[in-house]
Each structure stands twice: as C-alpha cells, then as structure tokens.
Write the structure tokens for this entry.
Amino acid sequence: MNVKARLWTAPAVVVVGFCLVMLLGLVRPSLHTTMFTIGLYALIALPLGLIYGQGGTISLAQGSFAALGAYTSAILTTRYGLSPALSIVPAILLPALLAFVIARPILRLPELSLALVTLSLGTVIAVGLQRGGDFTGSFVGLSGAPPLPIVGKNPVGTAILLWAAVLVVVVMYSHFVRSLRGRSLNAIRVDRLLAESMGVNVPLDLATLFAAAAGIAGLAGWFYVHSIGYIAPDSLGPETSASILFMVVLGGRRAVLGPILGAAFFTFANDFLPGAESHGLFFGTILVLILMLSPDGILSPQAMRWMRRVFAGRGRKASGPAPPVVPRAGEAAR
Amino acid sequence: MTVVHVLEFLANGIALGAVYALLAVPMSVVWVTTDVIDVSTGGYAVVSGMVAAVVGMPFGPIVGVLAALALGALAGGVFLGFHKLRKQRDAMLIVLATFALMLAIESGVLSTFGTDNRFLEPLPGALKVSGAVITYQSLFNLGVSIVVMIALAALLKLSPLGLQMRASAISDRAAMLVGVAVRRTQFLTFVFCAGIAGIAGVLAVLAIGMTYASTFIFTTVAFSGTVLLGKAGPLPAFWGAMLLGIVTAVSDAYLPNGWAAGVPSLLIILVLASGRMPATAFTGARP
C-alpha cells in the first residue's frame, strides 16, 4: 500500500463505518444516539491518542477541558444570549488558552507526575465548577442551552455534524503523524534531549499540542451542551477523563483509529452491561488485562503490521505472482 | 483569630493529618521500593472503612484491614504479572494498572455498599485544653498513627523484611545479586502497605465517615502528602501529610464552603510544577 493510500485509510474507514451504522439506524433509531455518544468520546479521545500515543505525554484532564468548553458555551448562550454558532469560538479557545498557559511548568515533568498533575488539575476544575454558585449553577448545573445551529435537535443531523468534526480531526491526525512535525513528536516521545539537540523546540511543540488537544475537547463540550441542552459538574469531569484514557489504551494509543475503536467499545459495553454501578469493575479489569497482555491496545503496531501483511498477501494472490526483476542495461543481475 | 481558634485548627488539622499520614506513608513506601505509585491506595482505605462500618464493632476494624490486605495482595499480583510478562520496562503501565484497579475497587464498593455515607460511632467525649475542644477520637487517631509509624520504622530498620525492602529500594539488581528475593519482597510491600492504608480507612470511618467516592479523594490526599515536602520516603510523607491535614483544616474554616476539597489537588500541582521534586524521583532512576 503506498503512502498516499495509507494517509486516507483511516478517514475512509471512519466514513464507511459511519455510513453503515447510520443505515442500520434506519431500522434501529437508537443507533443514531449511540453514534452521537461514540462521536463525542472519539472527539475527546483522538487528541489524547495523539499526544500520548505519539508524543508520550499523558493528560488526564481531557474530560475537564471538555467541561470547560461546555460551561463556557452554556454560560455565554444562556446568560448573555450569544448564539451557539458564535459561542463555539470561546468554547474552543478558553480551554486551549488555559492548557497553553499551564503547559510550560507541567509538560517538562516526567510522564508519571504529568499524569497525576493533570488529574489534579481536573479535580480543581471540577471543584471550581461545583462551587461556582449561580455563575456555574453549582451542583445543579446549567440548563436551557439552545440547540446546535443548522441541525437543531435532529438526532441524524447532530450525528452527521459531530462525525464531520471527527473526520476532520482524523484527517488532520493522519497527515500530522506522517509530517515532519509528527516525526518530531515521535522523537520527543523516544528521547526529549535528543529531540532538542536535533533542533526540535520541545516545550513549544508539546505546549501547542497540549493546547490543541484541550481545544478539541472544548469543541466536544460545545457539541455536548447544545445537543443535550444541559451541563452539570458530573457530566464531564475527572471520571470522564479516566474513561477517555481507557478508550485510548484499549483501542490502541499508537493507531489513528485506536481511540475511536476504544470509544465504540466503551459505549456499546455501557449500553449492554447490566447495572451502571458495576461498569467500573468491568472496565478496570479489562484495562488491567489489556495493559498486561497488549500494552499498545487492540490496534497495536504488531496487529497493524499483521493486517497489512494479510491484505498485501491477498492483493498479490488476486493479481497473480510478482513479475521477475529484470536488471537494467549495464547493471549486473543480483 | 483567638488562641482558642488556633489551637482548635491545629488539633483538628493534626487529627486529620494523622489519618492522611497513614495513606501517604504506604504510598511512599511502595513507591521507593517498587518505583510504582500505587494509585489504588485510596481504594484499600475505603474498602477497609466500609467493611468495618458494615460489620460493626468490635470485629469490623479487623475484618476491614484483612479486606485491605487481600486487595493489596491483588495489586501485588498484578505487579508481579507485569514483571513475569516482562512489561516492567515502562513503569507507567503498572501505574495505569493500579489506576484501573482503583476504578474497579470504587465500582465494587458502589455495587456492594451503595452511595450512602458510612461511619462508625466515634469515641465519645472530649478534652478541653485552654478553651479548645479536642475529641478523644482525634487523640486516638494521632496515637494510632504514631504507633504505626514507630512500628514501621522498627520493621524497616530491624527486621529482615525491612532490610530487604530497603535493599530493593536502593537497587533491586544489587539486591538480587546478594540473594534478596526482590519480587517477593516487593509483593509483600504491596500487601503490608495496603494493611496500613486499611488502618487509615478504619480511622477515617470513625472520624469523618466515607462513601464510595472517597476512593479518589483518599488517593489524591495520599499522593499530595507524599510529594508535599519534595522528597520521596516514609518520613517526608508522614510530615507532608500532617502539614496537609493542618492546611485542609484551616482551608475548611476560611475558604468558602467546599473549596477545601480542592486543596490537596492544588498542592500537588503547585509542588510538582514548581520543580521541587527531582525529576529522577519519577523515572525509576537507580544507581
């Protein structure tokens, strides 16, 4: 498979998968709502997959950044009468700006302490939202957020709009990892000092990515609040961040489609598992097993290489044996 | 602020710190011995406290601590599993596994005990010192915490297991070369430290009560106490947790209602982002 084909494989899979499920939704309409949930999680998880899987920088604050985006939009639309089509900008920019400002002192930390700092950041944000009084609605939250522009409350339209955003992120992700910047990010993951010595501006690159991840999470928060019409401190927070990490690790942190696969598994498992209280037990156990047996998740690099070999092998069988290598004039045959 | 207020803040803070210390110290001991932050420390405390509250006095605390020991054995088993499968090169994976274990424990507690706040009847009565009221439960918590610390110090300095733990903490390879059963020692460290966290859970259910959601709160408190003084180790963790208890008690009194819940997390961010903890503390750097 050539490079260009590989660039568009992941987006193609997203489009085909989405269309198939939406067609099935004509028979079972609840699938449209399920697709919305998966898309929401995918939008929050994809940036984490990029910064953790490619950059080795873990963030357990994605859920909280999504909450920030949701609250920003909810407050602007319900209290100040701004249209959702305009509130999308601050919903993305505010979490991104906050992430960029705090990135410098925390992104130089090793992976382990960074995970704990971002988890603590999520807790501080959650406490702030809970104790924000009338401004944030306190524990009750904010309701009455207007519906999404263009599609309104139509579940099919909402799912299409959301997955269009997911598709854009997937295309950007696919192109980014194969770009020079993407290779720099991999270099940072392997050895920060070596990356710096090769001219990579590690602090700026990581801070920019961290901010971009927060901004995309803020976008997901915007989708959430204007689809549901309501946001509370418990809607998106540290627990959501933990679930997002689960999706990325389970699906495959190094694969573009890994977070989406993880989001789909998580959503369907939530729908089919009995009793909401026992979900943590199930997901926690699965996560431990995945970390022990396949730390790179379901779509691990080994699994991807195996799939490419299988499909390449089938392609060769279909087109017949490879032609013999004929040396050019003047070249000795090997 | 009068002298009575100051004394009461100090007393409440120290009593709270005594419980926090029994969460922070086991986390730090596991950390220095295995290079792993055991994120499920809060879970051991909650399970112990919940079981103690349900079983009731006088056997509840014993059964609770035994439950915590069993969970510690599970965490130790997961740790050994990673080593057996040679996945130990990335300590982050093991930490994520303990995080997953914490989620599973929290869910298990919710399924089994529900969402109700559980508590045990505290020791009745109080002391009056210069006008400040200090409950007997607070004094009991402090006493238990000091006794556990003395016992831990004796174990680490005098017992064969303690010496093996210290050898494993300094260099697991060198310890293996001189015949220390490092993996067994590390496994026993997980179990033993879960027991200490279990004692914290029993004290917490006597002093402040708990719900399933306390799992994450206790873990945050444990880590905050562990890193607050900028050094890894049981003694810095003990004093860090004591300080955290006092800061939390003062915050409870002076911050707007409920904001004190964010203080441990804020301290984690401030300490780690300030660079006070050496980077090698988190990377498993060994001589």
Notes: Chain B has one domain: 3-282. DSSP finds eleven helices and two strands in chain B.
